[in-house]
């Protein structure tokens, strides 16, 4: 599920994880630069001083026509700080 933070604070869509890439930052950038959704500068800042970098390749993205309350998916109704299984 994709949760949009404030001011929406609702679930707005979903996707499937197709693959998870693990590589050096420079190799990961070479594989993902055209679809990464970030500039090289932001990428380099994020992975600064790291020897290993990760990226998630997604597929089948769906944006819901109507956003849904988080409570439909997470009993606590508390947004995850990183990720959670639903």
Short recap of the structure:
The protein is of the alpha+beta class and 86 residues long.
Overview of the structural elements:
- The chain is α+β, with helices and mostly antiparallel strands and 86 residues long.
- 17% of the residues lie in helices and 38% in strands.
- It contains two helices and three strands, in the order ββααβ.
- A three-stranded antiparallel sheet has the order 1-2-3, with helices on one face.
- The longest helix is centred in the first third of the chain and has 8 residues, at 25-32.
Descriptors for this entry?
17% helix; 3-stranded antiparallel β-sheet; 2 helices; alpha+beta; elongated; single chain; 86 residues
- Structure class: alpha+beta
Please count the beta strands (DSSP E, at least 2 residues each). Answer: 3
Q: What's the total helix number?
A: 2
The largest sheet, given as strand count, sense and whether it forms a barrel, is: 3 strands, antiparallel
Cα Rg: 15 Å
């Amino acid at each position: 599920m994709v949760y949009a933070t404030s001011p929406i604070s609702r679930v707005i869509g979903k996707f499937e994880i197709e693959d998870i890439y693990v590589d050096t930052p420079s190799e990961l950038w070479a594989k993902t630069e055209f679809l990464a959704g970030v500039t090289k500068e932001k990428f380099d800042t994020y992975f600064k001083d790291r020897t290993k970098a990760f990226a998630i390749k997604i597929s089948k993205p769906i944006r819901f026509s109507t956003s849904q309350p988080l409570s439909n998916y997470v009993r606590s109704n508390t947004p995850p700080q990183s990720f959670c299984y639903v």
